[in-house]
Amino acid sequence: MARRRGLSARMKLTLSYAGFLAVAGALLLAVVWGYLLRYVPDNPQGLLGVSPNRWLLVRTFFPAAAVAMAGLLVFGLVGGWLLAGRMLAPLTQIRDAARRAGDGALSHRIRMKGRQDEFRELSDAFDSMLRKLESHVEEQRRFAANASHELRTPLAISRALLDVAREDPTRDREELVARLQAVNTRAIDLTEALLLLSRGDTGTFTRESVDLSLLAEEAAETLLPLAEQRRTTLDVTGGEARTSGSAELLLRMVTNLVQNAVVHNLPAGGTVTVHTETVRAGTGGATSVLRVENTGPQLPPDLVPTLTEPFQRGAERVRTDEHAGVGLGLAIVHSVVRAHDGSLALTPRPTGGLLVTVRLPGAP
Q1: Which H helix or E strand runs over 67?
Q2: Cβ pair 214, 333 in contact under 8 A
Q3: What is the C-alpha separation between 197 and 338, in angstroms, rounded?
Q4: How far is the CA of 254 from the CAs of 215, 223, 245, 276, in angstroms?
Q5: What is the Cα–Cα distance from 225 to 179, expressed in whole angstroms?
Q6: Comparing C-alpha atoms, which of 346, 348, 342, 364 is closest to residue 356?
Q7: Three-class SS of residue 204?
Q8: At what angle do helices 173-202 and 247-263 cross, to 10 degrees?
Q9: C-alpha span between 360 and 364 (Å, rounded)
Q10: Helix 212-229 × helix 247-263 angle, to 10°
Q11: What's the confidence (pLDDT) of residue 312?
């Protein structure tokens, strides 16, 4: 929005300094003048016939007072301009950094030196904002690149299958249709996962009272055939754990956690335990807790923090069967937990496997 250009902050401070100094000087001269005239007689002989009278004192003092006031005004303008420039120098640094950030240079930092004051606090807050903004932009760029790559793969496979079918009319049509259907299903699943991830990030959903224990039982019932197929024991324990949020998103969160625990487990004889409970603080409110613990291969500690990043499947976690993921399972979980003002903790088990703990604010 275009605005009329006004006085700069430096000029305003300069005029304020000069005006304050001029007013203080005028008051001082007025006090001196009042006390001086109080004891000077107004007669031709003056005081005892030897001191000057009031008329002569006025004629002598007034020009000197005018010169002093002019000097104070000039000194106030010059000194105020220099002092204002020195005081506003940190603000100039912050302004230049903001302009560079607006031009896309998010890696620039102010790193203001000196003791802690208001400008230093503003500078540190601005640097922190730039750091988070740079990290967020880089994450979005990486996510867009990975999403484009993941979406391009099924499309490229579909085009290759169609080209083969065009060049070889004798090829089995049922096999071609089956492969195209599998590729198309994977593309649809990936698109729905991306939409769900975007919905969780924006937080645009209606909140209602949801019991995590019921969602855990529903997810376990849905995934029980998969657990039996993989000869994995699936148990749901605990009690009521109510929170406020979207039942659809929270169900997807629980389902993703349970499915992830079943798929990334031991080849046979593995276990998955889903536990829900409500933890009540002494003075604060309640916290609804969901824990999903599974057996499986040991995970390196440095790998665990990356599992919630989009399209990060981790070492030996890529599946080639019908339950192959798109690398967004835990990323969606993290997004849903964050949208519900909760916390997500991933802890590798010493004997192998993973313990996932979700903490959400309890429903009032």
Answers
A1: helix 54-102
A2: no
A3: 11
A4: 7, 11, 13, 11
A5: 24
A6: 346
A7: coil
A8: 130
A9: 12
A10: 30
A11: 60
Tokens describing residue 139: 């994450």
Q: Angle formed by the axes of helices 247-263 and 329-339, to 10°?
A: 150
Query: In which residue ranges of the chain is pLDDT below 50?
Result: 46-48, 315-324
| Residue 268 to residues 88, 99, 225, 231, 321, Cα–Cα distance (Å) | 69, 59, 14, 5, 16
Count of other CB atoms within 10 angstroms of residue 71? 11
Q: Which amino acid is at 30?
A: A
Residue owning tokens 């046979």: 268
Which residue, chain included where needed, has tokens 């000196």?
Answer: 114
- The Cα 210–Cα 246 span in angstroms is 8
| pLDDT value at residue 273 | 96
Q: State residue 318's pLDDT score.
A: 41
Report the DSSP pairing between strands 270-280 and 286-294.
antiparallel
Residues 6+ apart with CB under 8 A from 351: 295, 298
